[in-house]
Amino acid sequence: MAAERTDVVIAGGGFAGLALGIALRQSLGASFGILIADPFIDRPADARASAIAAAARRLFESIGVWGAVAEAAQPILDMEVSDSRLADRVRPVFLTFGGEILPGEPFAHIIENCDLIEALTAKARELGITLKACAVTGFDAGSGSIAVECADATASAARLLVAADGARSVRSRSATNSTPRCSRARAGARRRA
Ligand SMILES: Cc1cc2nc3c(=O)[nH]c(=O)nc-3n(C[C@H](O)[C@H](O)[C@H](O)COP(=O)(O)OP(=O)(O)OC[C@H]3O[C@@H](n4cnc5c(N)ncnc54)[C@H](O)[C@@H]3O)c2cc1C
Hints:
Elements: E1 4-11, H1 15-28, E2 34-37, E3 49-53, H2 54-62, H3 66-69, E4 74-76, E5 78-81, E6 95-98, E7 100-102, E8 105-106, E9 108-112, H4 113-126, E10 130-132, E11 136-141, E12 146-150, E13 155-163, H5 170-176
Parallel strand pairs: 1-2, 1-13, 2-10
Antiparallel strand pairs: 3-9, 4-9, 5-6, 7-8, 11-12, 12-13
């Protein structure tokens, strides 16, 4: 079967993969082909909530997604971190966060992950990004393109494969032979030469 051709395949439709796909489509236009593959597309299974820092919230605003979830998000006005039990008489505080980035702009918001994933998925679909409910199972980087294999036995030929399959990214590990880490000394984006 002939592989479907596209410009970029993004393996992983979490916050990172969906936001990247949306930003690429908005920046590069409809002629730039984007495919996001994730087995959990359209059935978010993430029951967690996240603290979205102001910088990340601004990114979601600029790609036109935050408005859809703003009412469900709760501003975090201050936070105290203590390694103690609720019932302890003395509860030493080790770390505090608080204040506003700008007047009226809290330093973070708490939000249920599935709400944000649903809003990102809806925006990606509205922009015509191809969403595939399937895991990326492997790839073969040839000279002109990357052959990307999916669990449903289909294949895509892409100019770029992005590993957005989470902190313990299997796709990234198989490309670099190491698990991506972010040490205190090297925080930030890592680019391979
Ligand atoms: C307990 C806990 C609490 C956290 N709290 C916060 C918080 O408060 N604030 C915060 O900013 N961050 C928090 N994080 C980190 C948070 O998980 C990440 O910031 C965020 O989810 C990262 O998004 P992501 O898209 O990189 O990865 P993920 O959310 O992990 O998404 C990865 C996606 O890749 C998909 N996938 C996996 N394998 C494949 C494959 N082979 N092919 C295709 N798709 C694949 C998965 O189905 C998933 O949808 C927390 C993490 C944990 C574990």
